[in-house]
Specification:
Layout: H1 9-14, H2 20-28, H3 31-42, H4 47-54, H5 58-70, E1 74-76, E2 82-84, H6 86-107, H7 109-113, H8 122-127, E3 135-138, H9 146-155, E4 160-165, H10 170-183, E5 186-191, H11 193-202, H12 207-213, E6 217-221, E7 228-233, E8 237-241, E9 252-256, H13 262-276
Parallel strand pairs: 4-5, 5-6
Antiparallel strand pairs: 1-2, 3-9, 4-7, 7-8, 8-9
InterPro entries: ArsR-like_HTH, FilR1_middle_dom, WH_DNA-bd_sf
Length: about 280
């Protein structure tokens, strides 16, 4: 993370054999080269079609095409049309993703900058990019507990829950237990011994113990846990952070409700779980 922005390393991995930075710089420092690459990324085209699309003279179009062809990013077909190469497709796709990631992270840069992330391994900061598609839920003067209330509303409708829990809250745990009991759900939990002990101490009705016994909860205790309260479920995903190493911030939450992004949330959880228990 640099200046609050998470950099997508997949781009650099994808073009490592093409002198990464020099090729990137060569493409994005020329408007015509970049436009040509993305135009051919969409479909094959002739010089005449490209001239019409960009309202440029054929000499300018030809020079740009030759430069891209020299980098093996495009090819000329037998019918004299131009098409993007496999290397060019990979480059264009990753530039597109990089631009999208930077734009999305900018919109939430305040969230990242205002919280401590030093306990989160670098590889997982990069993986958290799927929260680019999230909504920032914040406390307001009239709705001070808005992030908590939104979380509780969502967790009560969830069935399959995976959670990284570095902080204890009876309100959260009661709602999770309620969801598991009402929906016949399952919780996969990573936490610390201290948090586990607090859960048991406050569990006067023994819901947690009962759910563990019925195999509705699997939990894993670790000594060192990143300061991220992360939840992935079949209905939503969320992320809370800490102001510093000890102060949890319940006033801001990143929330994902787009079902297509939930697989990324589960993937992140499983990746983190594999990492800490390797």
């Amino acid at each position: 993370m640099e200046g609050g922005k998470i950099i997508n390393s997949e781009f650099f991995d994808g073009i490592s054999d093409l002198e990464d930075f020099n090729l990137l710089k060569f493409i994005i420092t020329s408007e015509i080269r970049l436009k040509l690459l993305f135009s051919l990324y969409e479909s094959t085209k002739s010089i005449k079609e490209l001239e019409s699309e960009f309202n440029r003279k054929s000499a300018n179009i030809s020079r740009g095409l030759n430069e891209l062809k020299g980098c093996k990013l495009i090819t000329r077909l037998p019918d004299k049309r131009y098409a993007i190469s496999s290397i060019g497709f990979l480059l264009a796709k990753n530039i597109e993703n990089l631009m999208y990631d930077c734009e999305s992270i900018d919109s939430k840069s305040e969230f990242w900058e205002n919280h401590s992330i030093k306990s989160i391994p670098n590889r997982f900061l990069k993986e958290l990019l799927f929260f680019n598609n999230s909504t920032l839920v914040k406390s307001t003067i009239t709705e001070f507990a808005k992030p908590i209330n939104v979380y509780l509303e969502n967790i009560k409708e969830s069935t399959e829950i995976s959670m990284i829990l570095p902080v204890y809250s009876k309100i959260f745990m009661d709602s999770i237990n309620e969801a598991l009991i009402n929906h016949g759900g399952h919780l996969d939990l990573i936490t610390t011994k201290n948090i586990h002990d607090l859960i048991l101490k406050s569990d006067s009705d023994n819901y947690f113990k009962s759910l563990v016994r019925d195999k509705k909860i699997n939990y894993y205790m670790v000594d060192d846990l990143a300061n991220i309260f992360f939840t992935a479920t079949d209905t939503f995903a969320s992320l809370y952070l800490f102001f510093d190493d000890v102060v949890f911030d319940s006033s801001e939450m990143l929330l994902i409700e787009d079902l297509s992004s939930l697989s990324d949330a589960y993937r992140f959880y499983n990746s983190y779980k594999t990492y800490i228990f390797k």
